[in-house]
Amino acid sequence: MTMKTPVLLTPILAALLLAGCGQNNSPASSGASATPGGPRIVEITAGDTMKYSLTTIEASPGERLDVVLTNIGTIPKEVMGHDWVLLQAGSDATAFANAAATAKDTDYIPPSLKGQIIAQIGLLGPRKSDDVTFTAPTAPGEYPFLCTFPAHFLAGMHGVLVVK
């Protein structure tokens, strides 16, 4: 019986090893889709320096995008939370940020300006990540995005989605 054990284990171990050598299907940070025809993944980090890792995103009209925001900071959410809010073209991002500063009860999204939002990722604490999938506008133009946490916009935490 001891002689049969290695003979039986050899095919099982070989199968396990081959199964472990499969292709890694996790999306690449280069913007590759997770599935053919799926949305393009755009990864953005934000940290305690109040800056996004990307300030410009280029998209084709009507392109599907999945924006992934990761807060790589260490300071608690109540003091240094980060979100990502994409606004309509022509929106006044400064006015939106100023109104957001007084909207703590709604996670710094001013209810009176919600109609300007195309897509958003809610407020994240340290080491948290979230995403939003949306279709880029069909009209070419520049669509501002920002962090609505108080003073983050003023510190430079904003950017633009360029549709062309």
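The record above closes out task 2.4. Task 2.5 opens with a second protein, given below.
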Amino acid sequence: MKKIYFLLVLIVPVFLFFACKKTDSISVPVLSTTQVTNITFTTAASGGIVTSDGGSAITSKGVCWSTSSNPTISDPKTSDGSGTSQFISNITGLTAGTAYFVRAYATNSAGTAYGDEISFSTIPLQPAAVSTNEVSAITISTGISGGNVTADNGSVVSARGVCWSVNAGPTIAGSHTTDGAGTGTFVSNISGLLDGTQYFVRAYATNGSGTAYGNEVTFTTVAIPPANEIKIQAMAFIPQTLTVAVNSTVKWKNLDGITHTVTSDNGSWDSGNIPAGNTFKFTFTATGTFHYHCTIHPLMTGTIIVQ
């Protein structure tokens, strides 16, 4: 009995020593953080390398990040498995053009350890690329333009159109159209203009970075002619129908860049060729309705009503 007691006295302290020694040897893991790569507007890639599990199995690992230094697992983080193998972490949900701090982490029974801190910045948003169409179909109060959004540069175009002003550099703070969203071409109908007035036009496209503008183009609306005067402009007689008193003289003024004629449908009068910038006059000495056209461009027609 004494012999057994003696052996127990020797064995128990030795067992306790080694048991305590084994427990005391467990520590948090040792790891490093992988450099950040594949940085975009809202995502990036990192990861880590665990060089020691600290004597206890690693139950979770990944990276954590924040806009403040020393992020922890209380901040946004990834979960990339367990064990000591090297791991890759996909970081998502970031804000464009923002500085972040990232650290790898690994957790075992002793707690959570962090790797070295690495900082990076996401790519800032860029304005969309947009060009302006020349203005066509110009009248005394309207015109048609538009543009082409050739690139959204990483941020969805939420609004597009054209803006115009009597001053250079029009913006969306003034008169503008709204012509859908996204990239590609679009057509804009400009209205509410003053006759005989020069306007400046720019296409615009709005994305997450703000509003970008295309090249500036200019145009002048058709002027309302004085009484008994008809303007030849934009391949049309303006006004197309004119009412005058008998013995009135009507003047046609060619404001187009090409030659036209003013020719009676019944052949009773003809201006001959009217070069750009020139005029033609004719006095109506009898009442009636007189139709006329341009012999060079037959689709151009007009009417004089004499009372």
